[in-house]
Amino acid sequence: MSEKDEISLMTSQFQEMVDQFFDLQCRYQAAIRLVQAKLEALDDEFQAQHSRNPIHSMQSRMKTIRSMMDKLERNHLEISIPSAVSNLQDIAGVRVICSYIQDIYTIYELLQRQDDIHIVKVRDYIREPKDNGYRSLHLVVEVPVYLAEGRVAVPVEIQIRTIAMDFWASLEHSLSYKTPETIPQDIADELLQTATDIAALDERMQHIHDEVEKRFGKTADRYRLHRALLAEKRQREKG
Ligand code: GTP
Ligand code: MG
User: Fold this and answer.
1) Measured between alpha carbons, how far is 122 from 164 in angstroms, rounded to an integer?
2) CB–CB of 167/134 below 8 Å?
3) N-terminal to C-terminal alpha carbon distance within the chain
4) Which of 56, 61, 119, 147 shows a CA-CA span of 20 to 30 A to 180?
5) Could you tell me if the CB of 173 is within 6 A of ligand 1?
6) Of the candidates 84, 82, 90, which has an alpha carbon nearest to the alpha carbon of residue 69?
């Protein structure tokens, strides 16, 4: 092959990769938007019915090319964009942060009832925490994305956790990430202890929440009562 032919082949291969990457980005960004919109709608509906939001906040991200390549390499898989599409289920990720543990399962239940969301994998690291103490509910869902070529099912990884679990996971990630070798046992033990302490705090907050509802009624009822009392007070002040 002449040098000119070689350059031309490389250019067309590179062009093909760029096209594949843009196509991938379109699909996964569309899937993220869809999942986020769905979760926002569920949160709004819950707010309308119960006067409180189960979702505290949400974040989303698409895996970088570098981290897709690293994961394929780690798992001894072919390193290419079609291989990433068929082998990786976490190219698109949405993290949902809830206030209380029960809210996590409420969101999960509401997602299960959606016709156009297909739950393909569930890993409950709350009921069965990882050895290091990590807790979260992980789901892989498939959502339909409509492209020129037709409808395609795109996987999105959803991690659902409480504010407290998120606090722990963020710090643990940065601490473990910066440690070049395996983390020393005494530090690992201390981290595990903090995860256990945090889980106990989550349970206490859940208990306080349940106790307030039991004694003073559901948030929606308390809110209605509060508004009625306020209106009565205003009326008195006027008259
Ligand atoms: P990855 O190759 O990391 O995607 O792992 P996996 O495909 O085996 O899935 P797993 O459910 O174990 O983890 C998926 C994601 O959950 C990770 O990419 C992290 O965002 C989060 N995660 C899992 N384990 C831990 C952990 O021990 N600490 C922290 N901070 N995050 C974790
Ligand atoms: Mg991952």
Assistant:
1) 21
2) no
3) 97
4) 61
5) yes
6) 84
In ligand 1, the atom with minimum distance to the C-alpha of 172 is: 30
Q: What is the per-residue DSSP string for 16-30? A: HHHHHHHHHHHHHHH
Handedness of CA 112, 114, 115, 116 (dihedral sign): negative
For the chain, which domains are there? 3-238 (3.30.460.10)
Ligand 1 neighbourhood includes 90 CB (under 6 angstroms): yes
Q: Which ligand is nearest to the CA of 138?
A: 1
Residue 93: CB atoms within 10 Å? 20
Instruction: Supply the pLDDT for residue 182.
Output: 83
Distance 137 CA to ligand 1 centre (A): 11
Question: What pLDDT does 220 receive?
Answer: 67
Q: Could you give phi then psi for residue 130, rounded to 5 degrees?
A: -70, 165
Q: Please state, in angstroms and rounded to a whole number, the distance separating the CA atoms of residues 85 and 152.
A: 12
Q: Is the CB of 169 under 6 A from ligand 1?
A: yes
Ligand 2 ion: Cβ-proximal residues, 5 Å cutoff: 90
Ligand 1 atom closest to 89 (CA): 7
